[in-house]
Design a protein that fits this description.
This protein is α/β, with parallel strands linked by helices. Helix content is 33%, strand content 15%. The strands form two sheets. The protein has a seven-stranded parallel beta sheet with strand order 8-7-6-9-10-11-12, sandwiched between helices. Strands 2-1-3-4-5 form a five-stranded parallel beta sheet, with helices on one face. Helix 11 links the parallel strand 9 and strand 10. 37% of the residues are buried.
Length: 319
Protein backbone atom coordinates (compact mmCIF):
# COMPACT_ATOMS: atom_id res chain seq x y z
CA UNK A 1 0.00 0.00 0.00
CA UNK A 2 1.26 3.48 -0.87
CA UNK A 3 0.75 5.65 2.22
CA UNK A 4 1.14 9.44 2.05
CA UNK A 5 1.11 11.78 5.05
CA UNK A 6 0.61 15.33 3.77
CA UNK A 7 1.19 17.36 6.94
CA UNK A 8 2.59 15.38 9.83
CA UNK A 9 4.71 17.96 11.61
CA UNK A 10 2.18 19.46 14.04
CA UNK A 11 1.44 15.93 15.21
CA UNK A 12 4.96 14.57 15.61
CA UNK A 13 6.96 17.83 15.92
CA UNK A 14 10.03 15.80 15.01
CA UNK A 15 9.96 13.87 18.30
CA UNK A 16 7.44 11.08 17.65
CA UNK A 17 8.00 8.29 15.13
CA UNK A 18 5.82 7.06 12.26
CA UNK A 19 7.96 3.92 12.02
CA UNK A 20 5.12 1.54 12.84
CA UNK A 21 3.04 3.03 10.03
CA UNK A 22 5.96 2.59 7.63
CA UNK A 23 5.85 -1.14 8.38
CA UNK A 24 2.34 -1.28 6.91
CA UNK A 25 3.25 0.00 3.46
CA UNK A 26 5.39 2.30 1.35
CA UNK A 27 5.30 5.51 3.42
CA UNK A 28 5.96 9.00 2.05
CA UNK A 29 6.02 11.67 4.72
CA UNK A 30 5.72 15.45 4.35
CA UNK A 31 5.96 17.90 7.23
CA UNK A 32 3.78 20.43 5.41
CA UNK A 33 1.99 20.61 2.05
CA UNK A 34 0.95 23.81 0.30
CA UNK A 35 -2.33 23.87 -1.67
CA UNK A 36 -0.49 23.88 -4.98
CA UNK A 37 1.55 20.81 -3.92
CA UNK A 38 -1.40 18.60 -2.99
CA UNK A 39 -1.98 16.82 -6.29
CA UNK A 40 1.64 16.03 -7.09
CA UNK A 41 2.16 14.57 -3.63
CA UNK A 42 -1.14 12.72 -3.29
CA UNK A 43 -1.80 11.46 -6.83
CA UNK A 44 -0.40 7.93 -6.31
CA UNK A 45 -1.66 7.43 -2.76
CA UNK A 46 -3.81 4.47 -1.79
CA UNK A 47 -3.90 5.59 1.85
CA UNK A 48 -3.93 9.36 2.27
CA UNK A 49 -3.44 10.97 5.68
CA UNK A 50 -4.03 14.63 6.46
CA UNK A 51 -4.50 16.99 9.36
CA UNK A 52 -5.37 20.37 7.83
CA UNK A 53 -4.62 19.93 4.11
CA UNK A 54 -7.98 20.23 2.33
CA UNK A 55 -9.12 17.08 0.53
CA UNK A 56 -11.86 18.43 -1.73
CA UNK A 57 -13.58 16.74 -4.66
CA UNK A 58 -11.32 18.52 -7.15
CA UNK A 59 -8.32 16.79 -5.59
CA UNK A 60 -9.86 13.44 -4.66
CA UNK A 61 -11.22 12.68 -8.10
CA UNK A 62 -7.65 12.93 -9.44
CA UNK A 63 -6.33 10.21 -7.11
CA UNK A 64 -7.43 7.09 -8.99
CA UNK A 65 -6.17 4.45 -6.56
CA UNK A 66 -7.33 6.10 -3.34
CA UNK A 67 -8.85 3.55 -0.97
CA UNK A 68 -8.67 5.16 2.49
CA UNK A 69 -8.53 8.65 4.04
CA UNK A 70 -7.04 8.99 7.50
CA UNK A 71 -7.37 12.16 9.55
CA UNK A 72 -4.97 13.37 12.23
CA UNK A 73 -7.83 15.17 13.97
CA UNK A 74 -11.32 14.67 15.34
CA UNK A 75 -12.92 17.13 12.93
CA UNK A 76 -13.44 16.09 9.31
CA UNK A 77 -14.57 19.31 7.62
CA UNK A 78 -11.42 19.30 5.41
CA UNK A 79 -12.78 16.30 3.48
CA UNK A 80 -15.48 16.34 0.80
CA UNK A 81 -17.51 13.72 2.60
CA UNK A 82 -20.14 13.44 -0.13
CA UNK A 83 -17.46 12.47 -2.65
CA UNK A 84 -15.85 9.98 -0.25
CA UNK A 85 -19.25 8.39 0.41
CA UNK A 86 -20.01 8.16 -3.30
CA UNK A 87 -16.80 6.17 -3.79
CA UNK A 88 -17.20 4.24 -0.50
CA UNK A 89 -13.81 5.51 0.68
CA UNK A 90 -13.63 5.28 4.48
CA UNK A 91 -12.78 8.55 6.24
CA UNK A 92 -11.42 7.70 9.68
CA UNK A 93 -10.83 10.29 12.39
CA UNK A 94 -9.29 10.36 15.87
CA UNK A 95 -12.00 10.62 18.55
CA UNK A 96 -11.52 11.55 22.21
CA UNK A 97 -7.72 11.66 22.22
CA UNK A 98 -7.34 15.16 23.68
CA UNK A 99 -10.30 15.50 26.06
CA UNK A 100 -8.30 16.08 29.22
CA UNK A 101 -5.73 18.34 27.54
CA UNK A 102 -8.40 20.61 26.02
CA UNK A 103 -10.28 20.76 29.32
CA UNK A 104 -7.03 21.65 31.09
CA UNK A 105 -6.33 24.58 28.77
CA UNK A 106 -9.94 25.76 29.06
CA UNK A 107 -9.51 25.98 32.83
CA UNK A 108 -6.06 27.57 32.42
CA UNK A 109 -7.58 30.37 30.32
CA UNK A 110 -10.29 30.91 32.94
CA UNK A 111 -7.72 31.07 35.74
CA UNK A 112 -5.53 33.48 33.80
CA UNK A 113 -8.47 35.80 33.22
CA UNK A 114 -9.49 35.70 36.89
CA UNK A 115 -6.06 35.57 38.58
CA UNK A 116 -3.78 37.26 35.99
CA UNK A 117 -0.78 35.09 36.83
CA UNK A 118 1.02 36.02 33.61
CA UNK A 119 0.39 39.75 34.04
CA UNK A 120 1.57 39.69 37.64
CA UNK A 121 4.69 37.74 36.75
CA UNK A 122 5.51 40.18 33.93
CA UNK A 123 5.04 43.06 36.35
CA UNK A 124 7.40 41.50 38.91
CA UNK A 125 10.02 40.78 36.23
CA UNK A 126 9.65 44.41 35.12
CA UNK A 127 10.70 45.51 38.63
CA UNK A 128 7.33 46.84 39.78
CA UNK A 129 7.39 44.87 43.05
CA UNK A 130 10.80 46.25 43.95
CA UNK A 131 9.42 49.78 43.61
CA UNK A 132 6.19 49.06 45.50
CA UNK A 133 5.59 50.86 48.82
CA UNK A 134 3.52 47.93 50.10
CA UNK A 135 4.25 44.23 50.53
CA UNK A 136 1.83 43.37 47.72
CA UNK A 137 -0.09 44.94 44.84
CA UNK A 138 -2.44 43.94 42.03
CA UNK A 139 -2.34 44.80 38.35
CA UNK A 140 -6.03 43.90 38.00
CA UNK A 141 -8.88 42.73 40.20
CA UNK A 142 -8.65 39.09 41.26
CA UNK A 143 -11.89 37.11 41.03
CA UNK A 144 -12.74 34.14 43.25
CA UNK A 145 -14.53 31.43 41.28
CA UNK A 146 -16.20 29.69 44.20
CA UNK A 147 -19.95 30.31 43.93
CA UNK A 148 -19.76 31.62 40.36
CA UNK A 149 -21.77 30.01 37.55
CA UNK A 150 -20.12 28.52 34.48
CA UNK A 151 -22.32 27.85 31.46
CA UNK A 152 -21.22 25.22 28.94
CA UNK A 153 -22.50 25.45 25.38
CA UNK A 154 -22.26 21.90 24.11
CA UNK A 155 -21.98 19.03 26.55
CA UNK A 156 -19.79 16.35 25.06
CA UNK A 157 -16.75 14.68 26.59
CA UNK A 158 -14.61 17.84 26.81
CA UNK A 159 -17.38 19.94 28.34
CA UNK A 160 -18.07 17.18 30.88
CA UNK A 161 -14.41 17.19 31.89
CA UNK A 162 -14.51 21.00 32.25
CA UNK A 163 -17.68 20.62 34.34
CA UNK A 164 -15.92 18.25 36.76
CA UNK A 165 -12.98 20.62 37.26
CA UNK A 166 -15.19 23.71 37.58
CA UNK A 167 -17.37 21.91 40.11
CA UNK A 168 -14.26 21.06 42.13
CA UNK A 169 -13.50 24.80 42.21
CA UNK A 170 -16.89 25.39 43.81
CA UNK A 171 -18.63 26.67 40.68
CA UNK A 172 -22.24 26.01 39.78
CA UNK A 173 -22.36 24.28 36.39
CA UNK A 174 -25.14 24.72 33.85
CA UNK A 175 -25.13 23.45 30.27
CA UNK A 176 -27.07 23.45 27.04
CA UNK A 177 -26.88 21.27 23.97
CA UNK A 178 -28.95 20.53 20.89
CA UNK A 179 -30.33 17.36 22.48
CA UNK A 180 -31.68 18.33 25.93
CA UNK A 181 -30.61 16.24 28.90
CA UNK A 182 -31.97 15.90 32.41
CA UNK A 183 -28.76 16.69 34.25
CA UNK A 184 -26.05 14.32 35.41
CA UNK A 185 -25.32 15.34 38.97
CA UNK A 186 -22.64 17.81 37.82
CA UNK A 187 -24.35 20.08 35.30
CA UNK A 188 -27.92 21.32 35.23
CA UNK A 189 -29.57 21.41 31.80
CA UNK A 190 -30.91 24.84 30.81
CA UNK A 191 -31.98 26.72 27.69
CA UNK A 192 -29.46 28.82 25.78
CA UNK A 193 -31.13 32.09 26.84
CA UNK A 194 -31.09 30.99 30.49
CA UNK A 195 -27.41 30.14 30.16
CA UNK A 196 -26.67 33.58 28.70
CA UNK A 197 -28.55 35.31 31.53
CA UNK A 198 -27.15 33.32 34.47
CA UNK A 199 -23.52 32.58 33.59
CA UNK A 200 -20.53 34.45 35.01
CA UNK A 201 -18.32 32.36 32.70
CA UNK A 202 -19.42 30.91 29.36
CA UNK A 203 -17.34 28.14 27.79
CA UNK A 204 -17.87 27.01 24.19
CA UNK A 205 -17.66 23.31 23.34
CA UNK A 206 -19.96 22.99 20.33
CA UNK A 207 -19.05 21.82 16.82
CA UNK A 208 -18.73 24.30 13.96
CA UNK A 209 -21.74 24.08 11.65
CA UNK A 210 -24.42 26.28 10.10
CA UNK A 211 -26.33 26.42 13.40
CA UNK A 212 -23.33 27.48 15.49
CA UNK A 213 -21.77 29.88 12.96
CA UNK A 214 -21.27 33.20 14.83
CA UNK A 215 -23.77 32.14 17.48
CA UNK A 216 -22.01 34.44 19.95
CA UNK A 217 -22.91 37.69 18.23
CA UNK A 218 -24.02 41.12 19.36
CA UNK A 219 -27.54 39.96 20.20
CA UNK A 220 -26.26 37.04 22.26
CA UNK A 221 -23.75 39.24 24.09
CA UNK A 222 -26.53 41.71 24.98
CA UNK A 223 -28.30 38.89 26.87
CA UNK A 224 -25.25 38.15 29.01
CA UNK A 225 -24.21 39.49 32.40
CA UNK A 226 -22.10 42.61 32.58
CA UNK A 227 -18.46 41.54 32.81
CA UNK A 228 -19.05 37.97 31.60
CA UNK A 229 -15.98 35.89 30.79
CA UNK A 230 -16.12 33.87 27.55
CA UNK A 231 -13.88 30.90 26.80
CA UNK A 232 -13.49 29.29 23.37
CA UNK A 233 -11.64 26.04 22.80
CA UNK A 234 -14.16 24.94 20.14
CA UNK A 235 -13.84 26.80 16.82
CA UNK A 236 -13.12 30.44 16.04
CA UNK A 237 -16.15 30.76 13.79
CA UNK A 238 -18.55 30.09 16.66
CA UNK A 239 -18.09 33.73 17.71
CA UNK A 240 -18.56 36.99 15.84
CA UNK A 241 -15.08 38.35 16.45
CA UNK A 242 -16.01 41.95 15.58
CA UNK A 243 -18.90 41.92 18.07
CA UNK A 244 -16.63 40.29 20.64
CA UNK A 245 -14.02 43.01 20.22
CA UNK A 246 -16.72 45.66 20.69
CA UNK A 247 -17.84 43.90 23.87
CA UNK A 248 -14.29 43.84 25.21
CA UNK A 249 -13.72 47.50 24.35
CA UNK A 250 -16.96 48.55 26.07
CA UNK A 251 -16.38 46.39 29.14
CA UNK A 252 -19.57 44.36 28.61
CA UNK A 253 -17.29 41.32 28.24
CA UNK A 254 -14.97 41.05 31.19
CA UNK A 255 -12.52 38.77 29.40
CA UNK A 256 -12.08 36.41 26.48
CA UNK A 257 -9.82 33.39 26.45
CA UNK A 258 -9.46 31.44 23.21
CA UNK A 259 -7.32 28.76 21.65
CA UNK A 260 -8.96 29.21 18.25
CA UNK A 261 -9.63 32.01 15.77
CA UNK A 262 -11.68 32.24 12.59
CA UNK A 263 -8.52 32.22 10.46
CA UNK A 264 -5.40 30.39 11.57
CA UNK A 265 -2.74 31.68 11.55
CA UNK A 266 -4.50 35.03 12.07
CA UNK A 267 -4.20 38.01 9.77
CA UNK A 268 -5.75 41.36 10.70
CA UNK A 269 -7.90 39.66 13.34
CA UNK A 270 -9.88 42.18 15.45
CA UNK A 271 -9.14 40.26 18.65
CA UNK A 272 -5.36 40.58 18.48
CA UNK A 273 -4.40 43.20 21.04
CA UNK A 274 -7.90 43.51 22.49
CA UNK A 275 -8.13 44.35 26.21
CA UNK A 276 -8.53 41.43 28.64
CA UNK A 277 -8.08 38.98 25.80
CA UNK A 278 -5.82 35.93 25.94
CA UNK A 279 -5.22 33.87 22.79
CA UNK A 280 -3.14 30.71 22.49
CA UNK A 281 -2.12 29.28 19.06
CA UNK A 282 -4.48 26.27 18.80
CA UNK A 283 -2.46 24.19 21.26
CA UNK A 284 -5.13 22.72 23.55
CA UNK A 285 -4.94 19.37 21.73
CA UNK A 286 -1.16 19.25 21.55
CA UNK A 287 0.17 17.90 24.84
CA UNK A 288 2.77 15.19 24.32
CA UNK A 289 0.37 12.71 25.90
CA UNK A 290 -2.50 13.66 23.57
CA UNK A 291 -0.30 13.62 20.46
CA UNK A 292 1.03 10.19 21.40
CA UNK A 293 -2.54 8.92 21.73
CA UNK A 294 -3.44 10.54 18.40
CA UNK A 295 -0.61 8.76 16.58
CA UNK A 296 -1.50 5.45 18.23
CA UNK A 297 -5.14 5.71 17.08
CA UNK A 298 -4.15 6.90 13.58
CA UNK A 299 -1.89 3.88 13.10
CA UNK A 300 -4.48 1.52 14.60
CA UNK A 301 -7.09 2.94 12.21
CA UNK A 302 -4.89 2.02 9.24
CA UNK A 303 -4.11 -1.42 10.69
CA UNK A 304 -7.80 -2.11 11.20
CA UNK A 305 -8.58 -1.04 7.63
CA UNK A 306 -5.92 -3.36 6.24
CA UNK A 307 -7.40 -6.19 8.34
CA UNK A 308 -10.88 -5.47 6.99
CA UNK A 309 -12.16 -4.07 10.31
CA UNK A 310 -12.82 -0.38 9.67
CA UNK A 311 -12.91 1.70 12.85
CA UNK A 312 -13.65 5.36 13.57
CA UNK A 313 -15.19 5.96 10.15
CA UNK A 314 -17.12 9.24 10.29
CA UNK A 315 -20.00 7.89 8.20
CA UNK A 316 -21.77 4.54 7.88
CA UNK A 317 -19.70 2.88 5.23
CA UNK A 318 -21.11 0.10 3.06
CA UNK A 319 -19.55 -3.19 4.08
Amino acid sequence: MRIVILDGYTTDEGTLSWGELAELGELTYYERTLPEQRLERAKDAEILISNKVVLDKELLEKIPNLKYIGLLSTGYNIVDLDYAKSKNIPVCNIPDYSTKSVAQLTIALMLELTMAVGKHNASVVNGDWEKCKDFCYRVQDIIELDGKTIGLIGYGSIAKEVAKIASALGMKVIATRRTPFTGDGVAQSVSLDTLFAQSDVISLHCPMNKDSDKMIDGRAIAKMKEGVIILNTARGGVVDEVALRQGLDSGKIGGYGADVLSNEPPKDNPLIGAPRCYITPHIAWASIQARTRLMRIAIDNVKSYLEGKIQNCVYDIKR
